[in-house]
Design goal:
Layout (H helix, E strand, L loop, with lengths): L4 H12 L4 H24 L9 H4 L1 H32 L5 H30 L7 H36 L5 H17 L9 H23 L1
Helix pairs in contact: 2-4, 2-8, 4-5, 5-6, 6-7, 7-8
């Protein structure tokens, strides 16, 4: 009996994923950079920062936020590389629907992340003294909306679509599939409501990337 096209494509796809180290490295770099950005911003900016206050004139806190903002473009580059390599490795086995959602949500996440960082950076560098209350409120709420309302929800869609593709091709163990769907759902409904929830996204990317790297090294060692 001839092999079914579905089984053939699945086998071909798994074979093409034998050494996906570039995707793993890019994902790890992105996860670590985004972790650093989020931690620096969370630690430097107080929760009740609706008004520009003493923290903005504190040189240590201000420098921490500026360092975080300068790391954002590098995180975006690493994430773009991660998307590109993963999509290339999936190759002929990709489902067009989920592949389109995977790519679109990933690109939108990067665009909104960079836009939010640009607004925040312009707000902080616009003057040496703290900006007026109206300007600060507008800039902070715009940044918050771009990142928490839009960017992280695109990250949630990216997580769910990537997990779906990996699960269909048998590229992820059950625990990683559960983590992916759980992360996506939590980000969709809870981001912006509970502090530190956004850290789930780089945690999932890091877990996925480490798994890809470990599997790649094991297979190379068995060859």
């Amino acid at each position: 009996m001839a092999d079914s096209p579905h089984l053939h494509v699945g086998a071909l796809t798994r074979e093409s994923l034998r050494t996906p180290r570039a995707a793993a490295v890019a994902g790890i770099v992105f996860a670590l950079l985004l972790f650093t950005v989020l931690l620096l911003v969370r630690i430097a900016i107080p929760p009740d920062a609706d008004q520009a206050g003493d923290w903005l004139t504190d040189e240590t806190r201000r420098d921490a936020v500026l360092v975080a903002l300068n790391l954002v473009p590098f995180a975006g580059i690493a994430f773009l590389w991660f998307i590109g390599v993963v999509r290339d490795r999936i190759g002929a086995g990709e489902d067009r629907l989920f592949a389109t959602v995977f790519l679109g949500s990933g690109l939108l996440f990067i665009a909104m992340l960079l836009a939010g960082a640009a607004v925040a950076g312009g707000l902080m560098l616009s003057s040496e003294s703290p900006p007026s209350a109206d300007v600060w409120t507008f800039g902070r709420r715009t940044t918050h909306t771009l990142f928490n309302v839009y960017a992280m929800r695109m990250a949630a869609v990216f997580t769910i679509s990537t997990t779906t593709i990996a699960a269909r091709l048998g590229l992820a163990p059950r625990w990683l599939t559960v983590l992916g769907f759980g992360t996506g759902l939590v980000l969709l409904v809870a981001v912006g409501t509970f502090p530190w929830v956004e850290l789930l996204f780089p945690t999932w990317v890091l877990a996925l990337s480490v798994h890809i790297l470990v599997v790649s090294l094991r297979r190379d060692g068995n060859d």
